[in-house]
Design brief:
With about 180 residues, the chain is an all-alpha fold. It contains seven helices and no strands.
């Protein structure tokens, strides 16, 4: 039997297609949908603006959404003098009163107790505690309640004019160790 080539036609058993229809006879339902919305550049089109102006009774409308109210670029600060006058002025506390108030603080006492017990404090609590202790120390200094710390003893430094040979001789003799031994007593 001779070879038969494949064809694109379905033949008798193939699917049946609708007959061809001319473009003019086709329905618009399959085509492009109608355009919606405003045309591009409608805001700047003078012909459209002139048509819409008389119908708005003199108001010029802007098709952009949102408020047209001007916005202040710098913050407006309102100072109310009434609020400042309503506050009764309290007399200033003396340094002694401030010190007593700081020492009687329950949070300070509880944090100091926790430190004495050996517990670790959070970073925030430690920062607050250090600030309070600094305030107390400052107030005690102002009131003269702090005892002056004794000045540390200064060690006599060798003169810089020593030559290398003198330094080497002193090192070998162990003079520094002997002086340290005597100064401990």
């Amino acid at each position: 039997m001779a070879r038969s080539k494949k064809t694109r036609k379905g033949g008798e058993n193939g699917p049946k297609f609708a007959p061809r229809v001319k473009k003019a006879d086709r329905k618009d339902a399959e085509g492009k949908r109608g355009e919606t919305g405003r045309k591009s550049g409608s805001r700047h089109n003078e012909a459209l603006l002139k048509k819409s102006a008389p119908s708005n009774a003199g108001k010029s409308t802007d098709p952009r959404h949102g408020s047209k109210k001007p916005v202040a670029l710098a913050p407006v600060v309102k100072v109310s003098k009434v609020a400042e006058q309503d506050k009764p002025k309290q007399p200033k506390m003396t340094d002694e009163q401030k010190l007593l108030k700081l020492e009687d603080d329950p949070r300070l006492n509880s944090l100091l107790d926790m430190l004495e017990e050996g517990r670790d404090l959070s970073a925030e609590d430690q920062k607050w505690l250090d600030a309070q202790l600094d305030k107390i120390e400052h107030l005690m200094d102002r009131l003269g309640l702090n005892e002056p710390e004794p000045a540390p003893k200064t060690v006599k430094k060798p003169a810089k004019s020593d030559s290398d040979d003198d330094l080497l001789a002193r090192f070998e003799s162990g003079e520094n160790h002997l002086n340290d031994y005597f100064s401990k007593d």
